[in-house]
Amino acid sequence: MAMTGARYRADGVKDFVTKLYTSFGAQENWARTASDVIVMADLFNIQTHGVERIKDYHQAILDGKLIPSAQPEILHETSISALVDGHEGLGHALAVWCMELAIQKARTSGVGIVSLRNSNHYGFAGYYPLMAVKEHLLGFTVTNTEGLMVPTGSKEPLLGSNPIAFGMYAQPYPFLLDMSTTVIPGGKLSLYTRDNKKLLPNCGLDTEGKPTLDPAAVRAGINSKHFGGILPLGGLGEDYGGHKGYGLAMMVEILSSILAGTNTSNNIRRFDKHDKNGEFFVAMDYSLFGDPAEMENHLSCYMDTLRNSARFDPDVPIYTHGQKQFEAMEENQRQGIFIREATHAEHLAVAQAVGFDPTPYFQEVT
Amino acid sequence: MAMTGARYRADGVKDFVTKLYTSFGAQENWARTASDVIVMADLFNIQTHGVERIKDYHQAILDGKLIPSAQPEILHETSISALVDGHEGLGHALAVWCMELAIQKARTSGVGIVSLRNSNHYGFAGYYPLMAVKEHLLGFTVTNTEGLMVPTGSKEPLLGSNPIAFGMYAQPYPFLLDMSTTVIPGGKLSLYTRDNKKLLPNCGLDTEGKPTLDPAAVRAGINSKHFGGILPLGGLGEDYGGHKGYGLAMMVEILSSILAGTNTSNNIRRFDKHDKNGEFFVAMDYSLFGDPAEMENHLSCYMDTLRNSARFDPDVPIYTHGQKQFEAMEENQRQGIFIREATHAEHLAVAQAVGFDPTPYFQEVT
């Protein structure tokens, strides 16, 4: 089923998001940073983390949970580390700021490790390691989120989607892993509900904590904060390694919320509380261990070996991580980013509520 | 089906492993370090990484691939990092040595990152983060291995089991994640073959690169180094996130082999080559980000919340990672470690081949 919508120039849409945030007191360059992350998700075809979220971000601003003018504050710093308070500012811009700090430290001290507390949703996690990759550094980030994942053996949504993102420079594409630690991404629930599709078995539990194929029932479980949610990567029980997905989510929880001294996922968006989630950023200079060009070449050759290996299905190519996204970006830069009609209507409504004319920002590519 | 075997005092078995390695030129303390890791796996009920492997290690010594007398050499060092050449020594002892180095650096500089090249199988990965955990540091390690995992979309075993191990101090048990990035552990293949059991669907491919339920066919695929192997965590294709397990394995490959400038998994045990695998160790002082006792308390409370949450099945407890292992250890320290009859016969044969009397080392606990 083809979705109804249109393609718009990415730059115009970025200006729209910037305008929204500056209207609520964000500095121009701060708003521009956040909008670059959001629109990059659309350029990479990760629509669930792109401008589809604008309506939610606007609502969070109105609720006083997202404060576009808030600036980060360094609470404690060493040559290799920093603890930063985000003061509930723009999650995307805070994350860019923290990763830049980690990169500076990696340049001077070999490694930079930054822990961020009191943040908000930072969107497409892969953006931040990519900043390090461009500087020929390893990049790594994790964040916790609203509770939506059920630990192995439990029926309560006590863990976040808790993504892991990691990147290293290579040719012709970098290696860029960006994965939630759940068996299916949370975005699949709304997508499947919209398209009237059933989930595969072993993906989620309903409001009674029982297995279900109904994506809306899983979402209802998450919203209830009582029983139900998405299962960990590996699915139900331990047969397919569900305890591994659960364990990875716990590792993310420790690195993001426990180290930052902020909300664990079970306390995010519960009883209408503020998010105040935690994030963790690492940049590392691999010249600590040898010649960077040699390592990058080694990785490029290895990924080439994988892509050119014998296919399970002759008609389905073997991809390395990041490849699909970089291929999509080239096309979307040319053709414009695709925005669904319903999402576009939300954007127009947001502009009207804020009180500015959205038309100059949405230039259709035909 | 109950396995035939007996329980032996752990200390005696450690002395046996030490005797084996010193017989081949290892220094006493070096051999003792390796044996402590090996027997700790049995104490933790991770038999696949315990004394079951002695026969393989002995064979590797005879083949000249494992050199018990080899000592690690630091090739490059900073206050936060080291690149170490393992010279194909005892994998377990080398890993302990590297983690100790990382811990020292974390104590003085906040973080210690050690990359090890030319190593051998280091066994139970969780041992090394646990060393850091005892010092109230975060501990992390990854290693690549023999090629046995098939990347998503491929039918060749080009990636290792590539485990991730991570730990943090908590009460009453630490958090200790120790997981391969495959959908099932490699040890399940021999276990299921021995017990004449079939695999679940979506766990492995045979020598033609086709899905199979036969564990021996998956092993044959791995041994062929041509087609077949275990699927990534998440299984076949992308429906259940198989590309995530594949991506995690790649992250491990980068951190272990690419940074160390040593063999990627596709080149290990291929055409009878030496292993020369890579390993990566991190220790991090979380007092960089706040009060360690507060963080540990936060984590302990959170894990308590998980364990006491509503159960999916009222009769099945909810565990946190490391809990089962610590509970097993207490019991096995008391009751002795269980060694199968077939494995014990291998030990006797090894002792005979080396030329010492094994009887004093195996004290049955009755």
Description of the structure:
By secondary structure, chain A is an alpha+beta fold. Chain A has a domain at 71-284: Malate/L-lactate/L-sulpholactate dehydrogenase, NADPH binding domain (Ribosomal Protein S8, Chain: A, domain 1), CATH 3.30.1370.60. Helices cover 40% and strands 16% of the residues of chain A. In chain A, the strands form 3 sheets. A 7-stranded mixed sheet of chain A has the order 2-3-4-11-5-6-7, sandwiched between helices. In chain A, strand 6 (164-168) and strand 7 (175-179) form a beta hairpin. In chain A, helix 1 packs across helix 2, helix 2 (28-43) crosses helix 4 and helix 6 crosses helix 7 (215-224). The longest helix of chain A is centred in the first third of the chain and has 19 residues, at 91-109. Chain A is globular and about 50 Å long. The two termini of chain A are 21 Å apart. The relative contact order of chain A is 0.17. The interface between A and B is large, with 81 and 81 residues.
